[in-house]
Amino acid sequence: MAPPTGPPEAPRVFMSYSHDDDHHRDWVAALAGRLRANGVDVCLDRWDVALGGNLALFMERAANAAYRVVAIVSATYARKADEREGGAGVEAQMLSARLYADLDEAQVIPVIRNNPANPPRLPAYLSGRRWIDFRDDKRAEDSYEELLRDLRSAPVDAAPPLGANPFDGKSDTEARLEIRNAPARWHSPGLTGNVEFVYAQNSGRYMIGSGLCQFTLDLGVRGPDTVYVLNDPADIKHVAVISRLRGREVLLSDVSQFNTSSRVVDAGIGDAIILHNKNGYWAVVMVTAIFGRRALDDERVIRFQYWIRPDRAPDFSGILVIDTPA
């Protein structure tokens, strides 16, 4: 019998930042402390260098491949890194060598804070690197979860499985039908989007989001301007509806308060469909139009805008609600 395996080793992170002022230093320490509370082994100078300790030796961890680096890129940090000034400059020199040795490496994560320019100023060694924005405190929770998921290799937006070749061993007609009927045709993978869906297609099912944040909207005809929504799909735990949302957007502050006990809910134009998936994430689907049209067959069409929270929070306050006919 193989010996039991222990828990996976905690990811190790070196925090690189400039000492702009007391408030900035405290913000960095709070971020580092929260990451440690979530199982990330963070090295921070104010914790790991005692009085009389060797700062140069501590900063060499920035060049150690065992550590990922979270670089808190304020405007001051960017300037000091480019001018090779202070500790930020020393760390930038070490990190430049590390990144240039492997241009595909994603071991340095730029975190933007106290950097008001748009786009933000990045030091030369981080030019072209994907960054995460922590400037807006209202979006801080979303940004924090994105950072934590990246460090813990648990992305919300995971790549879907690779499918089969639709042309392999099939006639042109069979291949064309397989392409036309593939479920991926009815899928909008973003966290927000605008969709027009002929809901007689794909058995009335349309997917939004991806990975852990994926939701299957299961629709059917209820009336000329009404649809019903089911909680039958394997990824859906609850469905609910907010009737006539326009003018009542305050209700979006906690969408978990609505009745989620039913298998089916009805929704019309101007209503908001609430979806709760089995991974604990929430989505709001705002119905903006339901109508019929003539094509090869008579078609029933729904248009909607949707939003998904990537942090499992049921608070959608502040989202844009499209003005729909009264």
How is this structure best summarized?
This protein has helices at residues 22-37, 45-48, 55-59, 75-83, 86-101, 140-151, 172-180, and strands at residues 12-16, 41-43, 68-73, 108-112, 132-133, 187-188, 192-198, 205-208, 215-223, 226-230, 236-242, 264-268, 272-277, 282-294, 298-308. With 326 residues, the chain is an alpha/beta fold.
Helical/strand content category: alpha/beta
Provide the succession of SSEs.
EHEHHEHHEEHHEEEEEEEEEE
- The assembly state of the depicted protein chains is single chain
In whole angstroms, how far apart are the ends?
Answer: 68 Å
Task: Indicate how many domains the architecture comprises.
Answer: 2
Poorly predicted spans: none
Description of the structure:
The strands form 3 sheets. A 5-stranded parallel beta sheet has the order 2-1-3-4-5, sandwiched between helices. Strands 6-8-9-10-12 form a 5-stranded mixed beta sheet, with no helix packed on it. A 5-stranded antiparallel beta sheet has the order 7-15-14-13-11, with no helix packed on it. The chain contains 7 helices and 15 strands. The longest helix is centred in the N-terminal third of the chain and has 16 residues, at 22-37. The mean pLDDT is 87. It has 326 residues and is an alpha/beta fold. Helix content is 22%, strand content 28%. The chain folds into 2 domains: 12-151, Toll/interleukin-1 receptor homology (TIR) domain (Rossmann fold); 186-308, no CATH class.
